[in-house]
DNA sequence: GAACACGTAAACAGCG
DNA sequence: ACGCTGTTTACGTGTT
């Protein structure tokens, strides 16, 4: 209070070591202790194998396509789902981290991204050890699906794609210009294009530059494939008459050079271009195959989207058996929110782990002053599947010096709820933090202070006098209450993550990791309610946030006895809060998350814990 | 721009 | 005196 002016000076004084270093420790901390070294070292062996895998996958894709084409069953335009026995290896998102150091990675990437990368690498390690590609491939497939979701979501939010989940890729094709499609392929697959893959597969000697796909789709595509839009947005039905080619404008010709992906041949005029086109880019088998591979990829993406949605549906159905969430939360006709492998459904208020744009900012380039690492608000708001997240990435956080994407409050809450008695002393909370997170093994003064601060500040943490001292418990009602009642899916977050932040400049692998992280946005609360915008099916991705918490609680609470609030009986005095009686709504549930619970919870207890009904009745 | 949430820093008090 | 615990205030930043 007396430090209003002093506070500024204090921040700059050397005495404020914690304050300053805590910020700088985001970068320099890695210099001190290499918390994430175990995961990072994995990256050293992965690049070559990844490339091999990628090449093999590309080869496989091309061969598969050619086989299908030879068998005559391929009709590129048909959008009917082909049940290919082999998944097209579109998941090539794992480009090698290459020369990036762990520290750099941490600065570039947010923890979930790093986590994604490390997971990928670990999965590949395991795969190598097992001598089987199956595992990694499946994981990549999942990640692929996640990336698809993210892209679709992104497009939807930009209004590019109507929302028909079962034909997501179909609409994608219709809505996107070829260059967008190719860019999508790049982004999604992590490889420059299927053309590149094909080059690798066939040993073609095309130019390696495929990055400038301004109007990248070959004419053969428009001739053979039902891609109607052109880069400039105009409708372009597959007419391939020479007339068009001589009119002076050609989708593949601009600024005096051929815009065939990877070509860039200089052509002084249209005639020369046409000549070049006929010579170099004739509609031969090769170019056709390229395009069809593209299409095949797109179709497979569609298939995967469908499978993913189906799987999601099943997951929801199974989890709904416990939580009775399925039918209520997802009206018929509405697709269920896709699930990422890393973010299983945690029904109540729990979104997936989302990287926060702010975190990315902070880690990447925001070295603003003493305001610490990041605000984890987003993660807290939308992606607090702490239980599942931690359960799945326990080892990661334990070993990697990466800040968990959760707020202190949610971490504390989780620590408390995870404890046998749902109560912890302050020191036990400390220990939980250090035990679970390598990140919290340093700068102890800072985060411990934050923990204490949070405990005191938030009403959801209830101090209970014990015989042995004081313990902290969680008032679940308050915890739910403290969320603002109305939250949306943070479209700005999506925008920031996808379009901004130098996203395009990132290596494909980082993009993949980023996308994987951001993909969890699909599990974030809907931008609009299904009622108000039923067309935004794909965007309805879960009533996971506070706004829906109450409703879900209402529908769930009475039907899931095992999830009812724990009976709390503790004869102790709580943190004094004069006005609390009024706010507690006179219901004796202020300590509902208290110490004693007699019901042994299932193994996935923590997932359920996250969903403790709060008996809010409005 | 205001309100809010969050993270961080810091002062302070009580206690062992 | 010291450290721990707990409370409180202040401030910067990001989000809504």
TrEMBL record:
GO cellular component: nucleus
PROSITE patterns assigned: FORK_HEAD_2 (PS00658), FORK_HEAD_3 (PS50039)
Alphabetized GO MF terms: DNA-binding transcription repressor activity, RNA polymerase II-specific; RNA polymerase II cis-regulatory region sequence-specific DNA binding; zinc ion binding
Bias type Basic residues, positions: 362-372
Acidic residues compositional bias, start-end: 606-618
Keywords, comma-separated and alphabetical: DNA-binding, Metal-binding, Nucleus, Repressor, Transcription, Transcription regulation, Zinc, Zinc-finger
Taxonomic superkingdom: Eukaryota
DNA-binding region range list: 403-476
Gene3D superfamilies: 1.20.5.340, Winged helix-like DNA-binding domain superfamily/Winged helix DNA-binding domain (1.10.10.10)
Extent of Gly residues compositional bias: 28-38
SUPFAM superfamilies per UniProt: Winged helix' DNA-binding domain (SSF46785)
Annotated protein name in UniProt: Forkhead box P4
């Amino acid at each position: 209070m007396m430090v209003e002016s002093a506070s500024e000076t204090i921040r700059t004084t050397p005495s404020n070591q914690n304050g300053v270093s805590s910020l700088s420790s985001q970068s320099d901390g890695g210099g001190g202790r290499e918390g994430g070294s175990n995961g990072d070292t994995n990256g050293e062996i992965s690049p070559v194998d990844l490339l091999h895998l990628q090449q093999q996958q590309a080869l496989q894709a091309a061969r598969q396509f050619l086989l299908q084409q030879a068998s005559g069953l391929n009709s590129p335009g048909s959008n009917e789902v082909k049940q290919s026995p082999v998944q097209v290896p579109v998941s090539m998102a794992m480009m090698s981290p290459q020369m990036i150091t762990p520290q750099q990675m941490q600065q570039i990437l947010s923890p979930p991204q790093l986590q994604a990368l490390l997971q990928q690498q670990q999965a590949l390690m395991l795969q190598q050890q097992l001598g089987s590609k199956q595992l990694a491939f499946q994981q990549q497939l999942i990640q692929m699906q996640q990336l698809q979701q993210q892209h679709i979501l992104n497009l939807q939010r930009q209004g590019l794609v109507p929302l028909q989940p079962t034909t997501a890729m179909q609409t994608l094709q219709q809505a996107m210009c070829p260059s967008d499609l190719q860019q999508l392929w790049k982004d999604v697959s992590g490889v420059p294009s299927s053309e590149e893959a094909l080059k690798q597969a066939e040993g073609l000697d095309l130019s390696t530059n495929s990055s400038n796909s301004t109007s990248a789709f070959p004419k053969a595509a428009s001739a053979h494939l039902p891609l109607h839009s052109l880069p400039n947005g105009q409708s372009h039905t597959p007419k391939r008459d020479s007339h068009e080619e001589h009119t002076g404008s050609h989708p593949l010709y601009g600024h005096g050079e051929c815009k065939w992906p990877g070509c860039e041949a200089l052509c002084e005029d249209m005639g020369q271009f046409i000549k070049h086109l006929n010579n170099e880019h004739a509609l031969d088998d090769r170019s056709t195959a390229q395009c069809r591979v593209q299409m095949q990829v797109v179709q497979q993406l569609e298939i995967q989207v469908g499978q993913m949605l189906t799987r999601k549906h099943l997951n929801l159905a199974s989890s709904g058996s416990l939580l009775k969430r399925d039918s209520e939360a997802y009206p018929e006709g509405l697709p269920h929110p896709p699930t990422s492998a890393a973010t299983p459904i945690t029904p109540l208020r729990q979104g997936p782990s989302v990287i926060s744009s702010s975190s990315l900012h902070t880690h990447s380039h925001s070295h603003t002053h003493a305001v610490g690492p990041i605000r984890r608000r987003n993660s807290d708001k939308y992606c607090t599947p702490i239980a599942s997240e931690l359960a799945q990435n326990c080892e990661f956080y334990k070993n990697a010096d990466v800040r968990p994407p959760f707020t202190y409050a949610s971490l504390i809450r989780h620590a408390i709820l995870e404890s046998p008695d749902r109560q912890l002393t302050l020191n036990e909370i400390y220990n939980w933090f250090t035990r679970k997170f390598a990140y919290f093994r340093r700068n102890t003064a800072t985060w411990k202070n934050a923990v204490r601060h949070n405990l005191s500040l938030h009403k959801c943490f209830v101090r209970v006098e014990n015989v042995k001292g004081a313990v902290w418990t969680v008032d679940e009602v308050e915890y739910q209450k403290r969320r603002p009642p109305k939250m949306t899916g943070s479209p700005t977050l999506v925008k920031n993550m996808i379009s901004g932040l130098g996203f395009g400049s990132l290596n494909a692998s980082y993009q993949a990791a980023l996308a994987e992280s951001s993909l969890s946005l699909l599990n974030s609360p809907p931008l609009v309610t299904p009622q108000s915008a039923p067309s935004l099916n794909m965007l309805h991705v879960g009533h996971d946030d506070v706004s829906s918490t109450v409703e879900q609680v209402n529908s769930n609470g009475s039907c899931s006895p095992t999830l009812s609030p724990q009976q709390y009986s503790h004869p102790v005095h709580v943190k004094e809060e004069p006005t609390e009686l009024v706010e507690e709504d006179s219901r004796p549930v202020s300590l509902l998350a208290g110490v004693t619970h007699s019901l042994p919870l299932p193994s996935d207890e923590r997932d359920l814990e996250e969903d403790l009904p709060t008996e809010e009745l409005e």
